[in-house]
Amino acid sequence: MAMTEQEKLDAKAEKAYYKKQAHHKKKLKMKPGDILFEIVDHLFFLVFSFTCVFPFYYIFINTISDNTLVQKGLINFFPRGINIQNYLALRNVGELGSAFIVSVSRTVIGTTLMVLASALVGYLVTKDEMWHRKFWYRALVITMYFNAGTIPIYMNMVMLGLTNNYLVYIIPAIVQPYNIILVKTYIESIPAELEESAFIDGASFMKVFRTIIWPLSRPILATIAIFGAVGHWNSFTDSLMYMQNAPELFTLQHRLYTYLNTASNLQSLMNTSGTAAASAMATVLNSKVIKYTISMVTIIPILIVYPFMQRYFEEGIMLGAVKG
Question: Do residues 267 and 284 make contact, with C-beta atoms less than 8 angstroms apart?
Answer without folding.
Answer: no
